[in-house]
Amino acid sequence: MPQPTDTAIPPHDGHRAAHRLVDVPGGRIHLVEQGTGPLVLLLHGFPETWRSWRHQLPALAAAGFRAVALDVRGYGRSSKPAEVAAYRMTAHVADNVAVVHALGEDTATVVGHDWGATIAANTALLRPDVFTAVGLLGVPYAPRNGVRPTDAFGMVGGDEEFYVGYFQRPGRAEAEIEPDVRGWLAGFYASLSADTMAPDGSPSCFFVPPGRKMADRFVRDARPAWLSEAELDALAEEFERTGLTGGLNRYRNVDRDWEDLAPWDGAPITQPSLFIGGEHDSSTTWMADAIEAFPATLPGHSAAHLLKGCGHWVQQERPDEVNRILTGWLRSLT
């Protein structure tokens, strides 16, 4: 039976990107694939879907790779288990291994953005037999350390609450987001995009004052250049259908991950690796020490690219530049 295709993505060699559902231990994973060649798994972050890789799928296919963008567990058309613990890091790693095998492959390169970068890093760390290289966008690799994550988050922000702490209690963030999903997404995307983010020195949307909402500090009435009305409509429609709980449950497992990953405390990722970040992304400024530590924590890394004038949504804000760097790196591996 012919697979459905996505007409929003340019075809390669006359073939459009195709959607599939594959079985994994925790249910099913929806993916979109394009091209033939060495397998490259693409993992999105919060609050995104496979669509965040819409510019990379045809570029990687044209470069001779089999590009596969997932709806990560809890998002889009993938399974959404009810239990918070079902979103622990080890479950995401198992999903990625199962996807590779379901696609008839033994090995792959894994590339992730935002939470997807952290999932990609741990996937490579835990399963080097399957994932032979790792690319990280936005969020650098920082090995597990001796501090429980929620304890660390509680020590930042003073009287204000760090957003990861704000997301911890089930239902709290959902009550803020879900009455106006489209408006919340638009504000969040704009607040982290280089061309629309608030001026330096403005109160950060990553910290929530007592009795307030995270969105109270979002940029309003601004639309990033990369985010069309049609793209925002597509994302809003998907999250209105699925809700945000699946994505938020990833944050609610940070302490559980810390316990699960104790055997890998301080461990480096030794496979070939790549990092691409935005100059104006908070992740690259807060975690500057992690980037400086790459020679020890990512001994196989080729380079750390910080894109001038770029915010958090790296592969969407700068698709051509990211495609050039990513395909060049992937070609060097083969």
Account of the 3D structure:
The structure is a single chain. The protein is of the alpha/beta class. It is built from 15 helices and eleven strands. The strands form two sheets. A nine-stranded mixed beta sheet has the order 1-2-3-5-4-6-7-10-11. Strands 8-9 form a two-stranded antiparallel ribbon. Strand 6, helix 3 and strand 7 form a beta-alpha-beta unit. It starts with a strand and ends with a helix.
Would you summarize the structure shown here?
By secondary structure, this protein is of the alpha/beta class. The chain is built from 15 helices and eleven strands.
Short key terms for the protein model shown above:
single chain, 334 residues, nine-stranded mixed β-sheet, 36% helix, globular
Helix content: 25-40%
Strand content: 15-25%
User: How far is the N terminus from the C terminus?
Assistant: 33 Å
Please give the count of helices.
Answer: 15
| N-to-C order of helices and strands | EEEEHEHEHEHEHHHEHHHEHHHEHH
Radius of gyration: 19 Å
Biggest sheet details:
9 strands, mixed
